[in-house]
Amino acid sequence: MAFPPYSRSVMEKLKGRAHRIAGLAVSLAKPRPASGFSPSVQCPNDGFGVYSNSYGPEFAHCNAIKWNSLGNGLAYEDFSFPIFLLEDENETNVIKQCYRDHNLSQNGSAPAFPLCAMQLVSHMHAVISTVTCMRRSSIQSTFSINPEIVCDPLSDYNVWSMLKPINTSGMLEPDARVVVAATRLDSRSFFWNVAPGAESAVASFVTQLAAAEALQKAPDVTTLPRNVMFVFFQGETFDYIGSSRMVYDMEKGKFPVQLENIDSFVELGQVALRKSLELWMHTDPVSRKNEAVEKQVKDLLATLEKIGAGISTVVLRRPDYSKPLPPSSLQRFLRARNISGVVLADHLNVFHNHYYQSIYDTAENINVNYPESQSPEEDLNFVTDTAKVTRLLYGFLIRANNSWFQSILRQDLRSYLGDGPLQHYIAVSSPTNTTYVVQYALANLTGQVVNLTREQCQDPSKVPSENKDLYEYAWVQGPLNSNETDWLPRCVRSTARLARALSPAFELRQWGSTEYSTWTESRWKEIRARIFLIASKELEFITLIVGFSILVFSLIVTYCINAKADVLFITPREPGSVSY
């Protein structure tokens, strides 16, 4: 099946006939559907943001704006049969050709045997819900020597860094003020681990990486009155896993920055700017009813407008005061404390992204393309006349396995880079590819190379002038030499660190929580598919009869041979003694 048949109406019909369907194989439609396609819901993360019956009830459940108006909710439906995505075009063509050769009728007659068939194997261990599967896993872990875990919570790590280093072994002073610059790392689609997320995630975190580099290299940055914390939240697609965990850790004193230290919060939403140069500065109308927050928000908006006035390619706009926040990490912080915050996005009302959280949210969706005549290395350093498409966009959206990404990672992490784009699904095995690459890209862009040996870099406590509580140290491959034959490894010192992004619900063992995300992923033994030819019922019956006849004949022959064994097989006499 290919798009457009792969739609909610068709899938609901198939779901109603699940007893007749063993599986479904979906091929990637090219070109993408012009009308858009989003398997997400119209109100992303509904119930886990700040708006509720007790806080801005007029905005709860997206009553004011259905942000993802094209969302059909397919990714949140339960299907009792496996659904596979056919990504390899060659394999897809083989399957289609097999179908055409054997299954298509000619002249209105029924197709002749043999027929082409396909087997899909995708046995999942998890059952019913997170509460049930986590309880079973917990019982297995408690009483079994070899426990069989049936599901795992979605988890990974947030990436964060400070503009000015802080001592991570302690807490910031209560009067220390921090500006949080945040964005999300993850996306999803209908299919497991297929999450290109070009507009929903990549454009935003690439923009923040570039902003972090620019700010770090600005003159007199150490004299700024407030520190800046750059945060890349993981798992936000699944009910704000990363941001809710950071808020929880701040409240419990498990993170060096506390909620009381946050002066303001600036978040990058979807900022691909495909349709216009306008960026809308969304704020929360409920918290702005507080006079102190209102004043801080106005000052923040004025500061952003002053900065934006010097950038001719972007126009900052203020939405109407009564408009709510779009789905954003800021909402989780507002649940804990009134904070002056702004979410920058390229949409005033509904998302401009018509492929939100779908397999079609690719580089093409944000107009990232390259001349066909160029090599991968030329694409990596390619700059268009209208927009400087950075190496970051190329690495995350086109080809992760490139010379620059290789140079900023540790040698043992090179296997994380594939020949295609990175996928931004949070998963259960962490850190994921995206998390590692963003951490090391942030370290490379904002850190500095220090003159340490490999041993000193891996254990800086042996160097009196270095401080592991202030910095992170990474021994990376470094750039190629002038002959491009060998890497020049080096030690990079930065403030880029990882912080756990596991929902507090699993730490608290509240698997049915409505306060925190409770998403889990089933375990499975193997996922595979195969095609083969099946014979007609008549041929199968003839084969059965012939086989049975051969079996009966062999039994008769075996019986006869056994009955006449003394005749057919004469035992030779033993030689007697001979005398001469």
TrEMBL record:
Transmembrane regions: 541-561
Record-linked CDD domains: M28_Nicastrin
Membrane topology recorded in Swiss-Prot or TrEMBL: Single-pass type I membrane protein
One GO term describing the cellular component: plasma membrane
UniProt domain Nicastrin small lobe: residue ranges: 7-126
Xref: InterPro entries: Ncstrn_small, Nicastrin
GO terms for biological process, alphabetical: Notch signaling pathway; protein processing
Keywords recorded for this protein, A-Z: Cytoplasmic vesicle, Disulfide bond, Glycoprotein, Membrane, Notch signaling pathway, Signal, Transmembrane, Transmembrane helix
UniProt keyword Membrane, yes or no: yes
Pfam family, one: Ncstrn_small
Classification via Gene3D superfamilies: Zn peptidases
Keyword Disulfide bond among record annotations: yes
Subcellular location: Cytoplasmic vesicle membrane; Melanosome
Top-level taxon of the source organism: Eukaryota
PANTHER family referenced in this protein's UniProt entry, alphabetically: NICASTRIN
Described purpose of this protein according to its UniProt entry: Essential subunit of the gamma-secretase complex, an endoprotease complex that catalyzes the intramembrane cleavage of integral membrane proteins such as Notch receptors and APP (amyloid-beta precursor protein). The gamma-secretase complex plays a role in Notch and Wnt signaling cascades and regulation of downstream processes via its role in processing key regulatory proteins, and by regulating cytosolic CTNNB1 levels.
Protein family (similarity comment): Belongs to the nicastrin family.
Designated name of the protein: Nicastrin
Annotated source species: Equus caballus
Gene for this chain: NCSTN
